[in-house]
Write a structure and sequence with these properties.
Keywords: Signal
Biased composition (Polar residues): 40-51
Signal peptide: 1-30
Order of helices and strands: HEEEEEEEEEEEEEEEE
Region (Disordered): 27-51
Biased composition (Low complexity): 27-38
Strand content: over 45%
Structural class: mainly beta
Length: 261
């Protein structure tokens, strides 16, 4: 009987050891623990600019929901299109909070690519952002043109252009006048006043009391919605003389167009 108890005790001890061993073992083929999720918030600022201007690549990268322990390396590339080769720009370090910043210079319209690699764990994240690059090009835009011939302009000749919008910058005007009586004169302006009331010194008007012309000048209206107005008066002709004018003027503005490349 004693030997039986000893065997039983030994068997129990052996079974306990086996259970303990099995409890600490990883079953064959079991999946490893999943890596913590990471993310990147990335932007190129500003959204558009001119060649050679500063651009800041910045953002955040790291473990989702954590604002510490995110230190790592962030590398940057540039490519004109998704199928074009990437050009390496350099790298910087993300702080423990995950924030990073990298200055570059704009070269062309395209896409910036960023890759984050945690400094200790084998985890990373990627981000992209688009930048538009343009050159400014000055373009003359015709606003209004008017021509008339053999006008007596007694007591006066008047023309009113249609209501229109203009840019806030100066308006370039070219005036041509050919009058038989040299002291024929008038005024040109851009105004929103339906009565076209003239006030001396107003930057949106120009007066020609002695009939100057041809001449080029600028108007600087205070309004951007209005109409062009011309009023011209011929000087009376001497006895037996004629009063007649050929008049024309054009108004244009220089607009800045963006040529993206």
């Amino acid at each position: 009987m004693g030997s039986i108890r000893l065997r039983a005790a030994g068997a129990l001890a052996t079974g306990t050891a086996m259970v303990a061993t099995l409890a600490g073992a990883t079953p064959a083929g079991a999946a490893p623990a999943p890596k913590p999720a990471t993310n990147m918030e990335f932007s190129a600022s500003p959204n558009e600019t001119t060649p050679g201007s500063p651009v800041v690549l910045s953002g955040w990268a790291g473990f989702i929901g954590r604002d510490t322990g995110n230190a790592g390396k962030v590398e940057f590339w540039f490519r004109k299109g998704e199928k074009d080769p990437k050009v390496y720009l350099g790298s910087t370090n993300a702080s423990s909070s995950g924030k990073f910043r990298f200055p570059v210079r704009a070269t062309a319209t395209g896409q910036y690519v960023a890759h984050y690699q945690h400094q200790k764990q084998d985890v990373g994240a990627d981000g992209t952002d688009h930048l538009d690059v343009y050159n400014n090009r000055a373009v003359d835009r015709m606003l209004y043109s008017w021509t008339a011939t053999a006008l007596s302009c007694l007591p006066s000749c008047k023309t009113t252009g249609p209501e229109q919008f203009i840019s806030a910058g100066p308006v370039k005007v070219k005036l041509s006048r050919e009058c038989l009586q040299p002291k024929s004169g008038g005024r040109i302006g851009f105004t929103d006043d339906p009565k076209n009331a003239f006030k001396a010194g107003e930057p949106g008007w120009r007066e020609f009391p002695e009939g100057e012309g041809p001449v080029e000048f600028e108007l600087k209206p205070k309004v951007t919605r209005g109409h062009f107005y011309l009023e011209w008066t011929s000087a009376p002709a001497p006895a037996g003389g004629l009063t007649s004018c050929n008049l024309s003027f054009t108004a244009s503005q220089t607009d800045i167009h963006k040529d993206y490349f």
